[in-house]
Sequence to fold (311 residues):
Amino acid sequence: MQIISLFSGAGGLDLGLIQAGNTVVWANDIDKDAVATYKENISEHIVCDDIKNIDISTLPDCDVVVGGFPCQGFSQANMLRTLDDDRNQLYKFFYNTIKIKQPKYFIAENVKGILSLGKGEAIKRIISDFEAAGFITSVNLVNMANYGVPQTRQRVIIIGQRKNLGDKMKFHFPVPTHSRSGEPKPWVSIEDAIGHFPDPDKENNVLNHIYSAYKVSYRNFTGHRETDPTKPSPTILARGNGKGGVCAIPHYNGKRRLTIRESASIQTFPETFHFNGTMGSCYRQIGNAVPVKFARLLGEELIRLEKEENI
Fold:
């Protein structure tokens, strides 16, 4: 299927969709490092610009719109005017894109907290907006570890389907392939995922195999908890110290932080995927991404739908 990708970042979602056989016809992000990474590894079709400068009517036609939008503007007191909130410009752009372009489907990714924001009123308003734009929706809370990603990363995936395609959702959300209990397969541990990498303090030829000097000190706080080698990694972070800086997860050896490459592998990027920018920028690009392996499952479902339509 032909896909427009909004807020694409380094392209984790896009890469998985492309690996499944789909085509991204247009992509956008404002971060120059993320765009440089995307261009080097995926394609030149990404545009580096502020969405305020983009005319939706000039975007190519597409079958699917994908992207994640921030949710800072959804407060309980402001629930009736979310589309007008200045903090919701990205949400408004996503909304206007699906309303104007009327794709067959859309895929929106967000953090787990969007479900509880405003005591659940925020997600209700978002679904109401999407329905008003002409789509039926399904809201799915996902633990990426249940899909073979070596990370207990919980995210909300909203699937939208244009109403004239039918009253029932045709998009079959991927069935979990792994579980904590081991059925049908056990979770993939962090050691299974990155144990083969050489010591980054010794000479090696591994791309982006460098790590933050931020000291490892264990305390009960995100990014500072001990990493168990027999379990999936904690969530790979885009931010972590409360001041906007990046906090890489501690390596399970307890001596250092994960390298950029190790973090990327936990997000299931290929080992040949090269990240551009400062160390902090690279960590941030990886932390903001959708795991490639999970994205590919979404892409395979789009391919199934396309084949079904053409029978």
Helices lie at 12-19, 32-41, 89-101, 121-132, 190-194, 260-266, 279-288, 292-310. The first strand starts at residue 2 and ends at 6. Residues 1 and 306 are 7 Å apart (CA to CA).
